[in-house]
Amino acid sequence: MMNAPRESGFFPCIAADRFETDDDLVAGMLANDAGAWREFQSRYDRLIIRCITKVTRRFASIVSQDDVREVYATLYVSLLANDMHKLRSFDPERGNRFSSWIGLLAINAAYDYLRSLKREPQKECITEAMELVCHLPDPFELTSEHERATIAQQTLEDFSEKDRAFAALYFGEGMDPQAIADKMNISVKTVYSKKHKIQSRLESVLAARTSPRRIAA
Q1: Could you give the domains of the chain?
Q2: What pLDDT, on the 0 to 100 scale, is given for residue 132?
Q3: How far apart are CA 21 and CA 42, in angstroms?
Q4: Count of C-beta atoms within a 10 Å radius of residue 216
Q5: Pick from 90, 111, 110, 109: which is nearest to 101 by CA?
Q6: Which of 55, 79, 128, 135 could form a disulfide linkage to 110, CB 3.0–4.6 angstroms apart?
C-alpha cells in the first residue's frame, strides 16, 4: 500500500470547516480556493488511492507503487486541466454522489493507465531482427482483424438502436465520454457502464467464435 494520503498528495491536509457540503467544496475548488483543495484531499485521498489500488493490484507483475502514484497525480492533473472542465461536468442532479463520482474517475484513470502500458512497445534490443523485417501487412493479422470486425458487426445487429449509436460514438468515433453523455442525455457514469457492458459482450462473442475448439471443429 501507499503511504497515507497526508504524505502522498499535493497539499498539507488542513481541515476547512467552511466546506460543510460537497456542493460547497466543489464551488470552492472551481474558485481555485487552496483551502477547498486541501479539504478535498483530506476527504477523498483515501478513497482515490483505494479505488486505484483495487484496479492495479490485479496487475502486480507490471504495476509498481510508482505507477499507482502516477495514476494518482494524473487524476489530480485531469481535474485541473482545461479550466477544470472535468470538475465542472459533475452534476449532482443526475443522481450521482460526489464520492461515487470521484471513485469512478479514479478507477477509470487506473484503467486508462493500464491500457497505456499495454500499448507501449517492448523495450528490447532487436538489432539483428531488423534485417528480417517485412514492411508489408501480415496476412494472418489482416484476416483475423477482418474476421473480428465481421463478428462484431453481426453482434451489434442484435443490439438496441440506442446501444448501436453508443458503440458508433465510443468505439467508432472515439468520442470523449463527457461529449457522449451530453449528446445522448445520459450521465458519464452510464457512459462507462454501457462501454463495459458492450465491450464485455463483444469480447465474449469474439472469444467463443475464435476459440481453438471452434476452429478445430
Answers
A1: 5-119 (1.10.1740), 134-216 (1.10.10.10)
A2: 46
A3: 14
A4: 6
A5: 90
A6: 55
Q: How far apart are CA 1 and CA 45, in angstroms?
A: 13
The DSSP string of 135-182 is: -SPPHHHHHHHHHHHHHHHHHHTTS-HHHHHHHIIIIIS---HHHHHH
C-alpha cell at 67: 505507477
Give the pLDDT of residue 161. Answer: 84
Which residue's C-alpha cell is 465491450? 199
Nearest 5°: the CA angle 161, 166, 171 is 130
Mean pLDDT of successive 10-residue segments in the chain (217 residues)? 43 55 88 90 91 86 84 89 88 82 90 76 45 54 62 72 83 84 89 85 70 47
Q: Please state, in angstroms and rounded to a whole number, the distance separating the CA atoms of residues 200 and 197.
A: 5
The per-residue pLDDT for 144 is 58
Q: What is the pLDDT, as a whole number, of residue 48?
A: 92
